[in-house]
Amino acid sequence: MNAVWSFSISFFVCCLAASPASSQFNRLEHPPHPPPPGERGSSNVTVVAHLPLGKPGSISDIEVEQDPGRPYAYVARRVDEIGFDIIDLSDPGRAKIIHRWRIENQELHQGGAMDGRYFKHEGRYYYVQSTQFSQGGPNSEVGAIVFDVTDLPERIHEVGRIKQSETRGGFHNIFVYKHSAGTPLLFATSGPHAKVFDLDRFLKGTQSEMATVVNDENHSLIGRVPVAQTENMWSRGYHDFYVGYHVETGQDRFYGGGGSGYYVYDVTDVANPELLVTIVGVPGVAWGHTFTPSPDGRYAVGETEFQYQPLRFFDMQPALSGEVQNIDRAIGAWHADWKSLAHNHEVRWPYLFVAGYETGLSVVNMENPSDPYTVAYYDTFNGRHDNREEALMRAGSPYTWNVYDGAWGVDVRNRDGLIVVSDMSTGFWAFRLRGFDGWDGRDYGMPNISSAQDWDTGPLGK
Q1: Mind spelling out the 3-state secondary structure of 62-76?
Q2: What is the pTM of this model?
Q3: Which residues pair with 128 in a beta bridge?
Q4: pLDDT, tens digit (0-9, with 9 covering 90-100), for 205-228
Q5: DSSP letter at 47?
């Protein structure tokens, strides 16, 4: 049986099989889009809040703070509203916008704010907003802007900008990670690498200057994670990544999507990253977009940003154990709607929370990664399916323009299970999933590792 047919059979088995589940949630089928009246979401999902933030198409990613006493979510804004909005969730049912930050002279900028991450360092809280501006306007050398948000809800202030003049165009994606050495690090897409910045060094640089806002030009850059080169690469750089501590080996690991697929590096020594796993040559995968591991680092979910493509599930153990050098096939796949595309996602084992563009929020059980299935959903997208006018202007492109609308980002607040979603057109959403009241990996026999960082103790718990 050839690889294409093998994948196709695996895909339909994963989507349609009805084997007994060990989860508290039942296997569900997504309704057609748009859903019939009264069937916008599954019965186990409750809408807690919805805030239309502004012009459709002006909304990008989302981040929620994790600490008790810090009830804030951040939604990045682009196009005509370049900056970010801060939402107060102290009473989630009465969510409200408490700050809107917009870049100066925003009408001159070409691009927008994309990904945002918060971190805590030496008793203060910071928010990092990535920006992506083309050279036709100002600030094309700026990749990220750092804000002190300690004094929310009263005020915020900008503390500095990270510039990269040699690789203009900004940072499409970022990830802020508490390294096992204790340092907060910023990983950012930039050229053919993921660049690594020492945020402690950056903050100390801002404190040593007389200016109110400091433009950091490389003095906090401490490492670069390359893309392993292969033939016929669709992209030379990374699109997205995740960084997490691997308990079994004591390594800090980088999981990147880009190039010809997906890549895992040991970044314990940030200046000398070591390639551990490649996932390339997978049928149907020309490049990697978003790549997220399970808490124990064995399994991973990979997205490739083309219409009709499912999320794929990979078992990396054969490569991690040295049996093979490369993983070239998925063990499972999942799709809410084969005509659409799943976008960003968060793993809280055994669940996968998916922002699926035109299919909105989905919650997937991935306890058996060869048989993932939907357990909850809510459609946040109001528009017609598969109907982007922009796609007509980009005819012939293999990219996913035709379904590039709807739910962009998703995040999960571990302490109480609140789910937040940013929809490109309909704005901010907050949800509760019945029976999911918080997440700690140890409750599921896993390390307590996710995208949510322990900023006080770090991954080593000290």
Answers
A1: EEECCCCCCCEEEEE
A2: 0.91
A3: 117, 146
A4: 876 554 445 677 778 999 999 998
A5: E
